[in-house]
């Protein structure tokens, strides 16, 4: 089996950067010592320096199409906000008055009686004290989105996850729900106050 032929390198001028690279002059490419510079239309030689009017005309000329295209391409490129902005740094606290347990929520957190440790980067597992044995192994999760908004999700726990605000209890089920502090979160039979620090 013969080796695959590789294409030849691109010719000079293929890339935009090539225009700014001056080729090295060798003995073959250097002009002869007695050769006179040849002036073409619109150019000057050392014997005829450019006038102020010619300099102004040269600098006032419009840019080439390739330079315009580069500017258009760059201006038209919009990076995703996931690359250009990260979620605001915020810190919240879950506090269970009955057990005295305090949990800092400053990143995604999986809550449970014995939560899984096999988690994506940036998510932490927190073991909840469970004196009433009503908390599931992987019970619920709190997460931030890229805009810094908080969400809570129940993982099909046996005794449910609830958000309590203004004496109204809302069950978190089937899909994640928006979470806003301050409120109370009931996980199983354990009540946690949830506040921003």
From TrEMBL:
Keyword field = Phosphoprotein
* Bias (Pro residues): 1-11
In terms of Gene3D superfamilies, this protein maps to:
2.60.200.20
Per UniProt, the ranges with Low complexity bias are: 39-66
Return the PROSITE patterns for the record: FHA_DOMAIN
Q: Where is the FHA domain?
A: 109-163
Annotated CDD domains = FHA
Q: Does the keyword Ion transport apply?
A: no
One Pfam family for this entry, by name?
FHA
- Locations of Polar residues compositional bias? 22-33
> Region Disordered: what ranges?
1-71
Q: Spell out the InterPro entries in the cross-references.
A: FHA_dom, SMAD_FHA_dom_sf
This protein is called: FHA domain containing protein
Traced from the root, the source organism's taxonomic lineage reads: Bacteria, Bacillati, Actinomycetota, Actinomycetes, Bifidobacteriales
């Amino acid at each position: 089996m013969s080796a695959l032929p590789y294409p030849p390198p691109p010719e000079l001028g293929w890339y935009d950067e090539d225009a700014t690279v001056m080729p090295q002059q060798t003995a073959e490419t250097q002009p002869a010592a007695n050769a006179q510079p040849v002036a073409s239309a619109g150019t000057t030689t050392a014997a005829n320096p450019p006038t102020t009017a010619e300099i102004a005309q040269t600098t006032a000329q419009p840019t080439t199409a390739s330079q315009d295209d580069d500017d258009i391409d760059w201006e038209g490129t919009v990076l995703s906000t996931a690359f250009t902005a990260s979620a605001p740094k915020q810190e919240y606290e879950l506090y269970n008055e009955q057990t005295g347990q305090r949990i800092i929520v400053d990143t995604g957190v999986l809550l449970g009686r014995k939560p899984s440790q096999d988690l994506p980067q940036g998510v932490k597992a927190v073991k909840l004290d469970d004196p009433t044995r009503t908390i599931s192994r992987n019970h619920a999760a709190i997460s931030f989105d890229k805009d810094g908004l908080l969400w809570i999700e129940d993982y099909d726990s046996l005794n449910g996850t609830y958000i309590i605000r203004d004496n109204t209890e809302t069950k978190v089920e089937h899909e994640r729900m928006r979470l806003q502090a301050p409120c109370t979160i009931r996980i199983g039979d354990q009540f946690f106050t949830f506040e921003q620090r």
